[in-house]
Amino acid sequence: MKGSMRQVLRDIAITTPITFVVTAVVTYLYSLLVHEAGAVNWETAFQLALIFGIVLPLTRARSDAPRS
Total structural domains in the chain? Predict the structure, then answer.
């Protein structure tokens, strides 16, 4: 069980920054293309990074867990 928790924490540590960077780039490109103003929506990037960074690894760990 201890190794499983380390795996989940490692996945959270990897998923959160990747989600943050991808969301920042997407909001920048959206702002640039639609509003013609290159601005990043940092609030959205941070919120989605926290949400997806925690939820995705937890759901993966739960689906990979052996069923009893």
Answer: 1
C-alpha span between 64 and 58 (Å, rounded): 10
- DSSP letters spanning 18-50: HHHHHHHHHHHHHHHHHSS-----HHHHHHHHH
Instruction: Look up the pTM and report it.
Output: 0.87
In tens, the pLDDT along 5-63 reads 999 999 999 999 999 999 999 999 999 999 999 899 999 999 999 999 999 999 999 98
Residue 24 lies in a domain: yes
- Residue 66 belongs to a domain: no
The dihedral built from the CA positions of residue 19, 21, 23 and 25, taken in this order, carries a sign that is negative
Among 28, 24, 27, 25, CA closest to 46: 24
Q: Is residue 31 part of a domain?
A: yes
